[in-house]
Each structure stands twice: as C-alpha cells, then as structure tokens.
C-alpha cells in the first residue's frame, strides 16, 4: 500500500467499528487501537490461523501486534504510520475474522 494511512475520525470510526465490536473486538482504553483474544482447539489450529493472517498482513503491508500461547492468540491492531486506527486496521480485522471462522470450522 503506497498511500499514507489516515487516522479515522470519530464518526467514521464508530460506523466501521460497530460490526467488529459485535464480533468481540474492543477499543483499548490506553491507545487508539482495537483488541481481541482468540482461542482455538489446540496449538495446531492457533498456528494455522496465524499463518492465514500472516498472508493477509503481508499482502496488505499491514501487521498485527500479537502474542500466541498454546491455543490462544491475542491481537492488537493499530496503524503506526498515523499513530492510531485507520481503515487498514478495519480491513485486516475483517480478514482476521474470516480466518478464525475458517480454522474453527475445519
Ligand atoms: C514501510 C511499511 O509499509 C510500513 O512500515 C507499514 C508496515 N506495516 C504496518 N503495520 C501497522 N500495523 N502499522 C503501520 O503503520 C505499518 N506500516
């Protein structure tokens, strides 16, 4: 992605975040960032999920802050380039939701 990311304005942010909040994402108190904890059946599934997300992150040139412990993956999304949430975070979060559903159904 070549264009510089722009920080979302409050109104736009609410509209774009609503569906993600319904999926369990939350806005952090301390940062302009969103966060969600994922839990899978085992490490194999968690890692498969991470591999799927990594493909999207690479393609979008937009990367999650994440940690993995066994079957859990904690993800924080924010845009370092604009020091806050941008449309790139929303797009990545949508792909993350798809990956989580695919892996859980397998
Ligand atoms: C040079 C490269 O495009 C930038 O550093 C990208 C890479 N991945 C990124 N990921 C995230 N989360 N925020 C960024 O601002 C960002 N910038």
Automatic annotation (TrEMBL):
EC number of this enzyme: 4.2.1.96
GO molecular function: 4-alpha-hydroxytetrahydrobiopterin dehydratase activity
Top-level taxonomic group: Eukaryota
Keywords of the record: Lyase
GO biological process: tetrahydrobiopterin biosynthetic process
Catalytic activity: (4aS,6R)-4a-hydroxy-L-erythro-5,6,7,8-tetrahydrobiopterin = (6R)-L-erythro-6,7-dihydrobiopterin + H2O
UniProt record similarity statement: Belongs to the pterin-4-alpha-carbinolamine dehydratase family.
The protein's name in its UniProt record: 4a-hydroxytetrahydrobiopterin dehydratase
């Amino acid at each position: 992605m070549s264009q510089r990311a722009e920080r979302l304005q409050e109104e736009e942010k609410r509209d774009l975040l609503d569906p993600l909040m319904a999926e369990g994402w939350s806005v952090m108190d301390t940062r302009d960032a969103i966060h969600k904890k994922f839990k899978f059946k085992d490490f194999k599934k968690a890692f498969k999920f991470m591999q799927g997300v990594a493909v999207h992150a690479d393609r979008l040139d937009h990367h999650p802050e994440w940690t993995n412990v066994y079957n859990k993956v904690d993800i924080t999304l924010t845009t370092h380039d604009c020091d806050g949430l941008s449309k790139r975070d929303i797009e990545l979060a949508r792909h993350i939701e798809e990956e989580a559903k695919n892996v859980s159904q397998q």
